[in-house]
Amino acid sequence: MGPIDPQMILGPNSMVSAKEIVAAVDEAEKRVNANQGSFALFSSLLSDVNMLMVEQARSALSRSESLMRESLSSLKNRTPTDVDRLATNLKPPLIDTPSSHSAVFSADDAIKNGLPVSKANVDDDQWKLIWMLWTRYFSMRCFPVGNRAIYEGARVSHVG
To answer: What is the pTM of this model?
Structure first.
């Protein structure tokens, strides 16, 4: 599992974390206020970012906790008290603390924070099938190594 980290489209083949957009703009503002002569530098460094994008990034970040709560609430037998407890435990490691989209929240982390997780046995046939499918996607240059997508149907995989 990874962090709850909204991604924004920055260019035709580029995505960036909403958290990084907001942090970059805030840091540029701080530095320009401290040294007015640095405006041109930071203006050029942030030339791909516009105000609408910054507001969209802030909005996406503000929705992160509510999306986590909605996801936690989707389990039918989970009570509102359970959701509150889990959300309180999970917000720091999944939303607040991660500094990178590639941060890892392991099965052990999930168990420690109260999520119902079963660790996969790498010798299990089901795991071997999942791994075989992943390596097939990888060799077909599908995400994350390429821009192709696979959609699984009832009988066949569809390449998109």
So the answer is: 0.69
